[in-house]
Design a protein that fits this description.
By secondary structure, the chain is of the alpha+beta class. It is globular, with a radius of gyration of 18 Å. It has three domains: 72 residues, Arc Repressor Mutant, subunit A (Orthogonal Bundle); 85 residues, Alpha-Beta Plaits (2-Layer Sandwich), CATH 3.30.70; 70 residues, YebC, transcriptional regulation domain (Alpha-Beta Plaits, 2-Layer Sandwich), CATH 3.30.70. Strands 3-1-2-8 form a four-stranded antiparallel beta sheet. It has a four-stranded antiparallel beta sheet with strand order 5-6-4-7, sandwiched between helices. The protein contains ten helices and eight strands.
Length: 249
Amino acid sequence: MSGHSKWATIKRKKGAADAKRGALFTKLARQITIAAREGGDPEYNFKLRLAVDQAKANAMPRDNIERAVRRGSGADKDTDLEELLYEGYGPHGIALLLQIVTDNRNRTVGDVRRLFTRANGNLSEAGSVAWQFEARGHIVIETQKLAEDKLFEIALEAGADDIQFADGEADIYTNPGDLQLVREALTKQHLHITVFELIMVPKTTLAIEPFDAVQVMHLMENLEELDDVTKVYSNLEVTDEALAAMEEE
């Protein structure tokens, strides 16, 4: 899981999402709309509650959130959105898993395939990559100068499976169904949660040369910039050397 944590950390520090807040709001609204199809009340729809909380955490206006919920629940006209999973291999054999929400499948597959081809990668058949990943709950908290062993104890008591520390933050992993319970338990401990999400984590990671890893990370960034791509996951082992090479660019 360390590769995911390091890559997510560097992206947050670079602030790429904040620099493109309009695109971020579009993606968040689509996720809310998709989730609201299973019920428009966040109290009884965990997927919707998670999507709404993420939107609020990113300062998405309340009107935008409510409009997205109405579209998904059928109160307002809904666009023909689909939730898809794309699988492929990037350069140097790195497995990539993409979560997609789109209203035009042909446009999306064309955009994604173009980026894969340009990076010497390729889209694959369904099932060729997904088996290499597993769903996990992910929470990031600020350590607030608390001792790591104390935070580790708190996280385990809250129901977490694993916790990793880096740069003043703790990455906490849970079973998908336990995410909300662990989040509530940590909140009661007055810990500052900055990220809470359901993610796909590689079962094993692949380490490659730093220069090659930078190529993969650039492809991942380009894919994430597409409006229809909500999340990109890989089995790349993001080493300190690869991060240093990325930051030098």
